[in-house]
Amino acid sequence: MNKKLIIFENKELFNILDEINEIFEFKLEFCEKESELDKLNKENSSNFLVVTKKKISNLKNQVIIDKFPISINELVQSLNINFLKSKFIEQSKIDFGKYNLDLNSRILKQDKKELELTEKESSILVYLKNSDGAVKINQLQEKVWGYNSELETHTVETHIYRLRKKIIENFSDNQFILSDKNGYFLNEEKK
Known about the structure:
- By secondary structure, the chain is α/β, with parallel strands linked by helices.
- The protein folds into two domains: about 5-90, no CATH class; about 95-185, Winged helix-like DNA-binding domain superfamily/Winged helix DNA-binding domain (Arc Repressor Mutant, subunit A), CATH 1.10.10.10.
- The chain has helices at about 10-20, 35, 70-90, 120-130, 135-145, 155-170; strands at about 5-10, 25-30, 50, 60-65, 95, 100, 105-110, 115, 175-180, 185.
- The strands form three sheets. A four-stranded parallel sheet has the order 2-1-3-4. It has a four-stranded antiparallel sheet with strand order 5-6-7-8.
- The longest helix has 20 residues, at about 70-90.
Protein backbone atom coordinates (compact mmCIF):
# COMPACT_ATOMS: atom_id res chain seq x y z
CA MET A 1 0.00 0.00 0.00
CA ASN A 2 1.81 3.09 -1.19
CA LYS A 3 -1.08 5.55 -1.52
CA LYS A 4 -1.50 8.09 1.28
CA LEU A 5 -4.53 10.09 2.31
CA ILE A 6 -3.48 13.10 4.33
CA ILE A 7 -6.08 14.93 6.37
CA PHE A 8 -4.97 18.53 6.85
CA GLU A 9 -6.07 20.49 9.94
CA ASN A 10 -9.26 18.49 10.44
CA LYS A 11 -8.69 16.21 13.43
CA GLU A 12 -12.38 15.24 13.66
CA LEU A 13 -12.44 13.93 10.10
CA PHE A 14 -9.15 12.12 10.65
CA ASN A 15 -10.54 10.42 13.80
CA ILE A 16 -13.68 9.29 11.99
CA LEU A 17 -11.73 7.88 9.03
CA ASP A 18 -9.17 6.31 11.33
CA GLU A 19 -11.93 4.26 12.98
CA ILE A 20 -12.90 2.71 9.65
CA ASN A 21 -9.51 2.73 7.90
CA GLU A 22 -9.50 -1.04 7.34
CA ILE A 23 -11.90 -0.52 4.40
CA PHE A 24 -9.48 1.85 2.66
CA GLU A 25 -6.80 0.99 0.13
CA PHE A 26 -4.54 3.78 1.34
CA LYS A 27 -2.55 4.81 4.40
CA LEU A 28 -4.20 7.50 6.51
CA GLU A 29 -2.16 10.38 7.95
CA PHE A 30 -2.87 13.60 9.80
CA CYS A 31 -1.02 16.86 9.23
CA GLU A 32 -1.52 20.24 10.83
CA LYS A 33 1.42 22.26 9.49
CA GLU A 34 1.44 23.52 5.92
CA SER A 35 5.24 23.36 5.91
CA GLU A 36 5.01 19.56 6.30
CA LEU A 37 3.04 19.38 3.06
CA ASP A 38 5.82 21.04 1.02
CA LYS A 39 7.76 17.77 0.71
CA LEU A 40 4.76 16.13 -0.99
CA ASN A 41 5.29 18.10 -4.20
CA LYS A 42 8.53 16.18 -4.70
CA GLU A 43 6.71 12.83 -4.49
CA ASN A 44 4.88 10.98 -7.23
CA SER A 45 1.57 12.85 -7.24
CA SER A 46 -0.49 9.74 -7.91
CA ASN A 47 0.57 8.38 -4.49
CA PHE A 48 -1.05 10.96 -2.24
CA LEU A 49 -4.18 13.00 -1.76
CA VAL A 50 -4.65 15.85 0.71
CA VAL A 51 -8.09 16.53 2.17
CA THR A 52 -8.42 20.12 3.30
CA LYS A 53 -11.10 22.68 4.11
CA LYS A 54 -9.42 25.41 2.04
CA LYS A 55 -7.18 25.47 -1.03
CA ILE A 56 -3.46 25.33 -0.33
CA SER A 57 -1.42 27.15 -2.95
CA ASN A 58 1.29 25.21 -4.82
CA LEU A 59 0.10 21.80 -3.65
CA LYS A 60 -0.89 19.04 -6.04
CA ASN A 61 -3.74 16.62 -5.45
CA GLN A 62 -6.06 18.39 -3.09
CA VAL A 63 -9.64 17.56 -2.32
CA ILE A 64 -11.37 20.51 -0.72
CA ILE A 65 -14.22 19.49 1.53
CA ASP A 66 -15.77 22.56 3.03
CA LYS A 67 -19.41 21.51 3.35
CA PHE A 68 -20.27 19.37 6.34
CA PRO A 69 -21.90 17.07 7.16
CA ILE A 70 -20.88 14.74 4.36
CA SER A 71 -21.84 11.10 4.09
CA ILE A 72 -19.01 8.57 4.38
CA ASN A 73 -20.06 6.97 1.08
CA GLU A 74 -19.92 10.31 -0.71
CA LEU A 75 -16.52 11.08 0.85
CA VAL A 76 -15.03 7.68 -0.04
CA GLN A 77 -16.37 7.94 -3.60
CA SER A 78 -14.84 11.41 -3.99
CA LEU A 79 -11.48 10.18 -2.66
CA ASN A 80 -11.43 7.15 -4.97
CA ILE A 81 -12.27 9.31 -8.00
CA ASN A 82 -9.50 11.77 -7.14
CA PHE A 83 -6.94 9.00 -6.65
CA LEU A 84 -7.89 7.58 -10.07
CA LYS A 85 -7.66 11.00 -11.73
CA SER A 86 -4.22 11.71 -10.32
CA LYS A 87 -2.97 8.25 -11.34
CA PHE A 88 -4.33 8.72 -14.88
CA ILE A 89 -2.71 12.15 -15.20
CA GLU A 90 0.60 10.89 -13.83
CA GLN A 91 0.67 7.90 -16.17
CA SER A 92 -0.07 10.05 -19.21
CA LYS A 93 3.12 12.08 -18.83
CA ILE A 94 6.34 10.55 -20.12
CA ASP A 95 9.78 12.00 -19.44
CA PHE A 96 12.25 12.06 -22.35
CA GLY A 97 15.14 13.85 -20.68
CA LYS A 98 14.74 17.47 -21.70
CA TYR A 99 11.28 16.81 -23.15
CA ASN A 100 7.96 15.69 -21.67
CA LEU A 101 5.19 14.03 -23.65
CA ASP A 102 1.57 14.26 -22.56
CA LEU A 103 -0.02 11.15 -24.09
CA ASN A 104 -3.55 12.50 -23.65
CA SER A 105 -2.98 15.64 -25.72
CA ARG A 106 -0.01 14.22 -27.71
CA ILE A 107 1.99 17.36 -26.98
CA LEU A 108 5.76 17.24 -26.66
CA LYS A 109 7.03 20.00 -24.36
CA GLN A 110 10.36 21.55 -23.57
CA ASP A 111 10.17 24.44 -21.12
CA LYS A 112 7.50 26.73 -22.65
CA LYS A 113 7.74 25.36 -26.19
CA GLU A 114 5.17 22.83 -27.35
CA LEU A 115 4.85 20.59 -30.37
CA GLU A 116 1.66 18.77 -31.31
CA LEU A 117 2.33 15.22 -32.48
CA THR A 118 0.28 12.75 -34.45
CA GLU A 119 -0.74 9.47 -32.85
CA LYS A 120 1.94 7.58 -34.82
CA GLU A 121 4.64 10.10 -33.87
CA SER A 122 3.73 9.67 -30.20
CA SER A 123 3.74 5.89 -30.62
CA ILE A 124 7.18 5.98 -32.25
CA LEU A 125 8.65 8.02 -29.38
CA VAL A 126 7.07 5.80 -26.71
CA TYR A 127 8.25 2.62 -28.45
CA LEU A 128 11.79 3.97 -28.81
CA LYS A 129 11.77 5.08 -25.16
CA ASN A 130 10.68 1.66 -23.92
CA SER A 131 13.16 -0.26 -26.09
CA ASP A 132 16.53 -1.49 -24.93
CA GLY A 133 18.94 -0.05 -27.46
CA ALA A 134 18.45 0.82 -31.11
CA VAL A 135 15.31 -0.31 -32.95
CA LYS A 136 15.41 -1.59 -36.51
CA ILE A 137 12.98 -0.30 -39.14
CA ASN A 138 11.23 -3.67 -39.54
CA GLN A 139 10.68 -3.82 -35.78
CA LEU A 140 8.99 -0.37 -35.83
CA GLN A 141 6.91 -1.45 -38.85
CA GLU A 142 5.70 -4.51 -36.99
CA LYS A 143 5.19 -3.04 -33.51
CA VAL A 144 3.95 0.50 -34.26
CA TRP A 145 2.16 -0.05 -37.59
CA GLY A 146 1.37 -3.76 -37.41
CA TYR A 147 2.95 -4.35 -40.83
CA ASN A 148 4.62 -7.59 -41.81
CA SER A 149 8.35 -6.90 -41.51
CA GLU A 150 8.97 -8.38 -44.96
CA LEU A 151 6.99 -5.66 -46.76
CA GLU A 152 9.00 -3.10 -48.73
CA THR A 153 7.87 0.26 -47.44
CA HIS A 154 9.42 3.55 -46.45
CA THR A 155 6.67 4.45 -43.99
CA VAL A 156 8.94 4.33 -40.94
CA GLU A 157 11.71 6.38 -42.54
CA THR A 158 9.21 8.96 -43.80
CA HIS A 159 7.54 9.33 -40.40
CA ILE A 160 10.84 9.62 -38.56
CA TYR A 161 12.14 12.12 -41.16
CA ARG A 162 9.03 14.30 -40.64
CA LEU A 163 9.17 13.94 -36.86
CA ARG A 164 12.85 14.91 -36.78
CA LYS A 165 12.09 17.91 -39.02
CA LYS A 166 9.27 19.08 -36.68
CA ILE A 167 11.55 18.73 -33.65
CA ILE A 168 14.36 20.64 -35.36
CA GLU A 169 12.00 23.43 -36.45
CA ASN A 170 10.31 23.72 -33.06
CA PHE A 171 13.11 22.98 -30.60
CA SER A 172 16.28 23.42 -32.76
CA ASP A 173 17.33 19.92 -31.71
CA ASN A 174 18.78 17.60 -34.34
CA GLN A 175 20.15 15.17 -31.73
CA PHE A 176 16.91 13.81 -30.16
CA ILE A 177 16.14 10.95 -32.56
CA LEU A 178 19.38 9.34 -33.65
CA SER A 179 20.23 6.35 -35.79
CA ASP A 180 23.17 4.08 -36.41
CA LYS A 181 23.73 0.73 -38.15
CA ASN A 182 21.56 -0.94 -35.46
CA GLY A 183 18.52 1.31 -35.96
CA TYR A 184 16.82 4.31 -34.33
CA PHE A 185 17.17 5.42 -30.71
CA LEU A 186 16.53 8.45 -28.53
CA ASN A 187 19.08 10.78 -27.01
CA GLU A 188 17.43 11.51 -23.66
CA GLU A 189 20.08 13.80 -22.21
CA LYS A 190 18.85 16.32 -19.69
CA LYS A 191 19.13 20.03 -20.42
